[in-house]
Structures are given as structure tokens and as C-alpha cells.
Amino acid sequence: MTFASSSSAAASLTRTAASRAQATVLRRRGFGTYPGQPSGPNVLTSSVPGPKSKAVLDDLNQVGDFRTAIVALQYPKCKGNYVVDADDNTHLDMFGQIASISVGYRNEELEKVARTEEFAMAAMNRPALGVFPPVDWRATLDAGLRKDSVRPRGLSQIFTANCGSTANESAYKACFMAYMHRKRGHSDFDQKTMASSMDNAAPGAPTLSMLSFKTGFHGRLFGSLSTTRSKPIHKLDIPAFDWPAVDWPALKYPLEEHEAENRKEEERVIALVEETIEQWETKAPVAAVVVEPIQSEGGDNHASPHFFRRLREVTIQKGVYMIVDEVQTGVGATGTFWAHEKWDLPTPPDAVSFSKKMQAAGYYHTEELRPSAGYRNFNTWMGDPARAIQAREIIRYIEAHSLVSHTASMGTQLHSILASLSSRYPTLVQNLRGKTEGTFQAFDCETGKERDALVAGMRKRGVLVGGSGERAVRLRPLLIFGEKELEIFAETLEATLKEMA
Q1: Please, what is the end-to-end C-alpha distance for the chain in angstroms?
Q2: Are residues 6 and 40 in contact, defined by beta-carbon separation less than 8 angstroms?
Q3: Is 201 part of any domain?
Q4: 393: closest CA among 358, 362, 440, 421?
Q5: CATH number, domain containing residue 313
Q6: Span 47-54, mean pLDDT?
Q7: Which candidate, 250, 249, 252, 232, places its Cα nearest to that of 240?
Q8: Shared-domain flag, residues 283 and 355
């Protein structure tokens, strides 16, 4: 089944004078249609996954658990916004490897770097960075991850890690260490403290906690999983720390149409945060609060900038650190490089974690979260120079092609399309959110069953989208997602909605 690149209905939704003008500006800056990618989806099999993908996945399941896999991909054939599966079906990827691909499959500029001696040496001679860093490690960081245009305001330090979960866990450790260092009056450890830590007992192993929000997701390791509250399947049978969680604000969408009642609900939750910190002071003092700018796995749940400013006020007043988990929201997807930039915080957060679209991982932090001694926040790799080089080139590509502003522009057009479809299919496209969040947008179906049917219907037509929470459809297109892809998405979504209505 092959889809045309446009239709009159989709074109009427996307081809405005403003969008044409913006597209012209972007082309002048060097970014237009992604070169060499397919012209559109092309589904050859009667079902997705097709027989060859099923055979590959069945074979993989003999040696590991691949029951969550959707299709098996032929990565050498993928290009730009498109992926090609084992059956040679071509799909427009609106899910981006769970929001992890930024500047396109088989990006030629990145592949050129991958063929350099610099990258080969980094990849094939991977150092234990905490013990034997390369002589040019600072230069690599400063040209990419620590670049002034990238590093979050007010955070001078960086800890590189191996994935989003380890980034968050390392940030948690830093907060616990800083909290106790402050409590000891910034003094060194005594013998009793050191000895008790080996018995997992106080004072060396203090009873502290991390406060998170219900329906949040921060990873699947022991510490991060204790703050993850999005789905039972993530947590079943796994021992967890006894740490508190408070409600996420139950807001009404669109946010801009329910400002007064949403403000009241956000203040209710802020009061809960204050009460919880106070109540846990005698049980397991809260050292830090961890929060996502948009709860992604939990259903694409939003809050206003006011909520996050109030949360920062509370953490400062209570002497609690604030970690902003930007693993999924970071690196341009929301129309600003970091989603928390929109909050206009008077005081920066204490730490900001990253991964996914950066293709590297870690967290930025203040000087206060720097451990009091070496080996305290440490592991063998402490990141990966090859991935830091990759991140450097991704950043360079993003900036050279103005992809953050491009994503903001595409998000405006995408939201307009979804709003139009919501008015015509109100039970299938409801609670639209993300108007000011670039292409990081979502909507709900009335039921989870309808959501699953919509995702499957889109897949059958060659467009991959994701689900989250109980009934949300989340969109995670690449930063190179353009007007042609937008038209194809609009056409495919409308065809799927018509079939379901």
C-alpha cells in the first residue's frame, strides 16, 4: 500500500502562507527536505509485522525476551525520517526509537565522522574515564556536551554516564552525598561513619529518601525504579526503597483554556509536596525531588511553568535538591533545547539529566553536587568518548540547520492539524496537549482499546506512533521532521480515524 505525498485535505491543513514563509527561511539556512530519504511510506505486506519480521523476532525469542519488539529493521536501508523493516515495508517513523533519534537515520554527516580515526580510536580503545581519560577529553566535552549554547544555565559541572537510568541514579547519589555533607557541616567522615556504611547501617548508610511524582518514569534500575510509578509491569517483584510519591496535577486540556482551575490543582499538589517533605523529616528525610518536564511514559502529562517555578521555590525553602529529568524531553524536541527553559526559573535546578536524542547520557549539575572525594560517584566507564563525539556532531548538525526553531515551527503546524481533527473526531482525538512544546505532542483516545487500535491502524498504513499511559497517543518525530512528512502524517491519521469512526 503506497501513500501519495499529499492530499487536498492534508494540504489545506498545512499549506498556510506563514508555514511556506517559515519553510523558505529554513531552506535558506540549509535545511529543507531530507536528502535521499523515501518519498513516503510503502507497506507491502497485509499485516505489520510481516512474515519476515515475525520470523526474525521468533528466532530472537529463542535466545532472549523480544516480546516487546514491533518489527525487525534493516538499518542500512533506513534513511532520514524513514525505517525499512525485514519485509521491505517502509515506515514514516513518528516514534523515533522511543524519542532517541534526533537528526535522521543514516545521517551522512554523522557517518562521515564515524569513519574518522578520531571516532575509531574512541570506539575501539574505550577508556575507563575516571582513571585514564584521553588527553583531549575536555576538548571533546567543551565542543559538544559542555558547549555554552547547550549546557543548562547555571550548571557548570557534568557527569557522563551510559544511559538515562544510570544518569538519574548517579544524580540521586550526588544529591544524597551532598545532603549528608551539608548535614555534617562539610566535614570529613569519621571512623564510625565509614565502618557503619559497610554494614548498610547509619550513620554511614543513612535513611534518606527521594520524592517523585505518581505516574512518573525515571528508569528501571533499583534507585530509579523506586521513583518510577508509571506502570506496574515495570515494578512487579522488584524490591524498592520506601520513598514517597505525590500526585501529579490532574489538569484539564488544553491548558490555556482551563488556567484558573488548573492553577488551583497545581497549588494543591505543591501543598502536598511541602507536607510530604515535612512529614518524612523524621522517617527518611527527603534529599531531593525528581521531576520530568512532561511525564512521558505515564501518559504525556503536562503542567504549567508556574507549577515548576513553585516547585523550585519549595525545594529551596526546604533545603531539598531539585533534579529535572530531561532524558526524553531534552535536545530540541519541545522547541527549546531543554524543556525546562520555558519555566523561566529564577534559580536553576541542581541537576538536569539527559540521554536519548543526545545519544550520550549523563547529568549537568551545580558545584554543590560535586562529591567531596574521588571514587564516590564512579564506575568503570563513566560515559563513552565515542558517544560524546557522536553527541558533539549531533549538536553541530542541530545548530547548523536551526533544528530547534524548525521543530518549534513544525509543532505549531502539527498542533493545528490535531486541533482540526479533534473537532471532527472528538472521542478519538481528545485532551490535545503540547501546543507550545514543539513536536512533543500527544492526545487521548476515549479508551485504551481505541488507542491501541489507532496505533495499529497507523502502523498498517506505514506510520509509526507510540502509546503511553492508559489511553494516550504520543508523537515523537525526529528533529528533521518536515512539511512533507507532516502532510503524510495528517493524511494517514485522518484515514485511520475515518476507518475507526
Answers
A1: 21
A2: no
A3: no
A4: 358
A5: 3.40.640.10
A6: 96
A7: 232
A8: yes
Q: Quote the Cα angle for 127-355-411, to 5°.
A: 150
Q: Which of 9-13, 217-221, 307-311, 410-414 has the lowest mean pLDDT?
A: 9-13
Are 126 and 406 contacting, i.e. CB atoms less than 8 angstroms apart? no
The enclosing H or E element of 473 equals strand 472-475
Q: How many CB atoms lie within 10 A of CB 470?
A: 14
Helical axes 403-424 vs 17-28, angle rounded to 10°? 160
Same domain, 458 and 309: no
Per-residue b or e along 380-394, where b marks 16 or more CB atoms closer than 10 Å to that residue's CB: eebbbbbbbbbbbbb
Q: How many separate domains does the chain show?
A: 2
Whether the predicted pLDDT of 7 surpasses 80 = no
Q: What is the tens place of the pLDDT at every residue in 200-254?
A: 999 999 999 999 999 999 999 999 999 999 999 999 999 999 999 999 999 999 9
Q: What is the mean pLDDT of residues 297-302?
A: 95
- Angle between helix 483-500 and 448-460 (nearest 10): 120
What's the pLDDT tens digit per position in 396-414? 999 999 999 999 999 999 9
Range of the domain at 423: 8-109+401-500
| Residue positions annotated with a catalytic role | 217, 325, 356, 380
Q: Looking at this protein, which amino acid is placed at residue 412?
A: T
Give the residue-averaged pLDDT of 468-485. Answer: 96
Query: Where would I find the beta strands (DSSP E) of 179-255?
Result: 209-213, 245-246
| Backbone dihedral angles phi then psi of residue 84, each to the nearest 5 degrees | -125, 125
**322 and 421 share one domain:** no
Pair (282, 352) in one structural domain: yes
Instruction: Please identify which residue in the block is written with the cell numbers 520524592.
Output: 211
Q: What is the mean pLDDT of residues 1-9?
A: 38
Q: Is there a single domain that holds both residue 314 and residue 365?
A: yes
Instruction: Tell me, yes or no, whether 378 and 462 share the same domain.
Output: no
Residue 172 lies in a domain: yes
CATH, residue 489: 3.90.1150.10
Residue 170 placed within a domain: yes
Query: Which whole number is the average pLDDT over 253-278?
Result: 96
Task: Please indicate, yes or no, if residue 196 is contained in any of the structural domains.
Answer: no
Q: What is the DSSP string of 314-355?
A: HHHHHT-EEEEE-TTTTTTTTSSSSGGGGG--SS--SEEEE-
319 pLDDT above the threshold of 50? yes
List, edge to edge, every strand of the sheet that includes 466-468: 430-433, 441-444, 472-475, 466-468
User: Are 421 and 313 in a shared domain?
Assistant: no
Instruction: Please give the single-letter amino acid code of residue 439.
Output: T
If asked whether residues 97 and 177 sit together in one domain, one would say no
Burial, 89: exposed, middle or buried (Cβ in 10 Å; 0-12, 13-18, 19+)?
buried
How far apart CA 66 and CA 70 sit, in angstroms, is 9
